Structure formats: structure tokens, C-alpha cells
């Protein structure tokens, strides 16, 4: 695999792993702050914005992000930590890998049309961790990869947002067992 220090190197690595030639300007590349050695890769689709393609962890490319959780989270120490730390790992996986191009809301913006709850972590009855959070993305025309299209918390300048209440369930081994959108508003409801 090539050097992953630059976006060009990431594009070359993804091209080699997928047998599809990608240029760096066709990809939305996110280097995870909360998870070391992890790069989330999305492809840019006009009108949709960044659409998840895969991830690189410890120089290995995973095309299926959902299945990668069962392999990567144990490598990040999922098994040997407290429930609280596992919750933080799960939250980082959701925000840095699954939805890196959406803004996770920690408080309700002025135009928020629903009852708000801050991001929460809870153990389900069968063990593991449940992450529940509200996210937002501007619903105006999608920006290119070099132009962020996400809102910036409650101070977003756009008057139209796509809000989603999302829930992610991880089992005791770190596998992502479900991912659902519980509530949404397209364009600010």
C-alpha cells in the first residue's frame, strides 16, 4: 500500500484495493481523530455529497464498513475496557467512520423541529452498546469534496437542514448489529 499521509496516497491505495481508478478530488477522505490509524473514505456523488465507500485501518482496506466494526473494534481494545470506554469507542466509530460527513448535534439548533436529546450511550438488555444521536446536514445542493457541506452546530448559515435521529447497536464483541434512522426531516421539516 502507498503512503497514506496524503490524500493522493489514500486515493492510490483505494484504487489499488478496489480495482477502480480514483482521483483524490473524487473522494471525501476523513482521518479519524478519535480512532488512531483509521481513515474513512467516501466517494463524492453530485447531488448526494459524500457516500461511504470503505475505510483503511492499520493499512488494510475494508470495503464493507458495517462488517469492519467486528474486526477493527476489537483491535482498538473493545474487549479489555470498561463499558464506559466501549461507549466512547462506539460513539467515535459512529461519528468518525459511519457518519463523518454529518454534524452530530450536542444541542438543538434554532430551527430544530423535534424534541431534542443529546447523544446518548446505553447498554442494551443483551449487552453491548447502543449509540443514539441527532445529526444534521445541509439539504441545499451538495458541495464538492473540497467544500464542506455540513452544518456547524446551532450556528449554521443555511435555513434548510436534514435532521436525523439515528441509533446504532453494537454487540459485546464489537460487531455493528443494527443501524437505523428513527426519525428524520428532509429540508428542516
List keywords for this structure.
four-stranded antiparallel β-sheet, alpha+beta, 189 residues, 21% helix
How would you characterize this protein structure?
This protein has 189 residues and is α+β, with helices and mostly antiparallel strands. The protein has helices at residues 7-18, 65-75, 83-98, and strands spanning 27-31, 38-45, 49-57, 60-62, 103-104, 120-122, 129-138, 161-170, 176-185. A hairpin with a 2-residue loop joins strand 3 (49-57) and strand 4.
How many runs of DSSP E, i.e. beta strands?
Answer: 9
Uncertain stretches of 5 or more adjacent residues: 140-158
- Count up the helices: 3
Which structural category do the helix and sheet elements fall into?
alpha+beta
Shape: globular
* Main sheet makeup: 5 strands, antiparallel
Radius of gyration: 17 Å
Q: What is the string of helix and strand elements?
A: HEEEEHHEEEEE
Distance between the termini: 45 Å
Overall pLDDT, averaged? Answer: 84
Our estimate of the beta-strand percent is: 25-35%
In which range does the helix fraction lie?
10-25%
Amino acid at each position: 500500500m502507498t503512503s497514506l499521509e496524503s490524500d493522493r496516497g489514500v486515493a492510490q491505495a483505494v484504487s489499488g484495493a478496489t480495482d477502480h481508478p480514483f482521483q483524490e478530488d473524487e473522494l471525501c477522505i476523513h482521518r479519524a481523530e478519535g480512532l488512531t490509524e483509521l481513515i474513512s473514505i467516501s466517494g463524492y456523488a453530485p447531488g448526494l455529497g459524500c457516500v461511504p465507500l470503505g475505510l483503511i485501518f492499520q493499512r488494510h482496506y475494508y470495503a464493507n464498513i458495517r462488517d469492519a466494526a467486528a474486526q477493527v473494534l476489537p483491535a482498538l481494545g473493545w474487549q479489555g475496557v470498561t463499558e464506559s470506554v466501549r461507549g466512547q469507542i462506539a460513539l467515535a466509530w459512529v461519528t468518525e467512520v459511519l457518519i463523518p460527513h454529518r454534524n452530530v448535534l450536542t444541542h438543538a439548533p434554532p430551527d430544530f423541529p423535534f424534541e431534542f436529546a443529546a447523544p446518548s450511550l446505553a447498554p442494551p438488555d443483551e449487552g453491548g452498546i447502543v449509540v443514539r444521536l441527532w445529526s444534521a446536514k445541509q439539504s441545499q445542493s451538495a458541495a464538492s469534496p473540497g467544500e464542506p457541506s455540513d452544518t456547524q452546530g446551532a450556528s449554521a448559515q443555511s435555513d434548510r437542514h436534514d435532521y436525523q435521529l439515528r441509533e446504532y447497536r453494537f454487540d459485546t464483541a464489537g460487531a455493528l448489529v443494527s443501524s437505523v434512522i428513527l426519525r428524520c426531516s428532509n429540508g428542516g421539516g
